[in-house]
Amino acid sequence: MEDNECRDGRKKVRLANTPLSVSQILTCILPSGGGDAENLQCILRLLTSYGVFSEHREFRGERKYSLTEIGKSLVTDAEGLSYAPYVLQHHQDAFMSAWPLVHEAVLDPTIEPFVKVHGEPAYSYYGKMPEMNGLMRRAISGVSVPFMTSVLDSYNGFKGVKRLVDVGGSAGDCLRMILQKHHFICEGINFDLPEVVGEAPSIPGVTHIGGDMFNSIPAANAIFMKWVLATWTDDECKLIMENCYKALLAGGKLIACEPVLLDDSNESQRTRALLEGDIFVMTIYRAKDDNSFYFFLFILPVSYALSGR
Ligand SMILES: C[S@@+](CC[C@H](N)C(=O)[O-])C[C@H]1O[C@@H](n2cnc3c(N)ncnc32)[C@H](O)[C@@H]1O
Predict the structure, then answer these.
(1) Whose CA is nearest to atom 23 of ligand 1?
(2) Which domains does the chain show, CATH number per domain?
(3) Which single residue of 84, 100, 102, 192 has CA 20 to 30 Å from 10?
(4) For residue 246, how many other CB atoms are within 10 A of its CB?
(5) Ligand 1 centre distance from Cα of residue 162 (Å)
(6) For ligand 1, what atom is nearest to the CA of residue 225?
(7) Where is the O-methyltransferase C-terminal domain (predicted)?
(8) Which residue, 272, 171, 177, 170, is CA-closest to 231?
(9) Stated pTM of the model
(10) Which residue among 125, 149, 151, 170 is best mutated to probe the pocket of ligand 1, counting the most ligand atoms within 8 A of its Cβ?
């Protein structure tokens, strides 16, 4: 094992991924002893069957476990990122308590299950809970950074942009990566709720601005928006887009990057992830649409770049 410092200052442990027995793993978790190896083994065997661990066993010998590629995605990487905060975020008590009401989204879709349980929408609830907001920022960074790496490999729509606003940009990871790749962009504005940008790290070339996209959006040549529209109703999306239109300078454009559900309900992991995402949004957020917005994006074959003026 070797210790490293993460970019946010936390200590990170990088595993060599040598197969370990349950007692060796217990010693790592509880160096001063104790713990129940049999119970840990039950959990590790189940996680093995889900592809998180590989099991190594000589004939009837002791079981040893190493991480699979899925398991590794849950371990903090050299940049301090992993998918683990996303998993933890989705299993917080506040989210879990909305799931027993998922049927209510069918019976009475006017108020989402999260609001029925907590009396207020998810984003205003997070706003009062700094630890929830912090976990959301880390969760978004963990899933967004690898995703943006592949977007930036293939998407060329930032050409000619001088001032770029990322609406709902969370900690600013997307903007940081866009600016690192496209040096011609002189100025990046990371626009999100005040309580979110208030805790965002400083990034060269990026100004964090707190506000509400339903009121107004800072002016720019181009507006980038990723994984934002999918959590709002069609009417709310129209309002956000009207504010984008007002914010765009002449010749500007809106670059929307959102999940698009294909027609076929097949068994692929991708389809399942998208369908599960829809159920998550239906339970926690507000999205209730007639698919017209998605259709609008889907018919734009090149880049989902919506032209402004
Ligand atoms: C699912 S996250 C996406 C974050 C980021 N775009 C990414 O893909 O990495 C949605 C973001 O929208 C922000 N948001 C929610 N309501 C907002 C509002 N009224 N005005 C501005 N941002 C908002 C949230 O705080 C959150 O950071």
Answers:
(1) 168
(2) 2-72 (1.10.10.10), 84-307 (3.40.50.150)
(3) 192
(4) 10
(5) 22
(6) 6
(7) 103-283
(8) 170
(9) 0.84
(10) 170
Kindly state the DSSP code that residue 290 receives in the 8-state scheme: -
Rg (CA), the chain: 22
Side by side, the strands of the sheet bearing 163-167 are 206-210, 187-192, 163-167, 220-226, 248-257, 305-307
Single-letter amino acid, residue 122 = A
Confidence of residue 287 (pLDDT cuts 50, 70, 90): low
pLDDT in tens, 186-233: 999 999 999 999 999 999 999 999 999 999 999 999 999 999 999 998
Rounded CA gap, 196 and 204, in Å? 18
| Residues 251-276: tens digit of each pLDDT | 999 999 998 888 899 999 889 999 99
Residue 13 pLDDT level (bands cut at 50, 70, 90): very low
The secondary element (H helix, E strand) that includes residue 4 is: strand 2-5
Tokens read off for 67: 């991480």
- Residue 170 Cα to ligand 1 middle (Å): 6
Please tell me whether residue 279 adopts helix, strand or coil conformation: helix
Return the ligand 1 atom nearest residue 173 CA.
9
Whether the pLDDT of residue 240 is over 60: the answer is yes
- Contact between residue 188 and residue 182 where contact means Cβ atoms under 8 Å apart: no
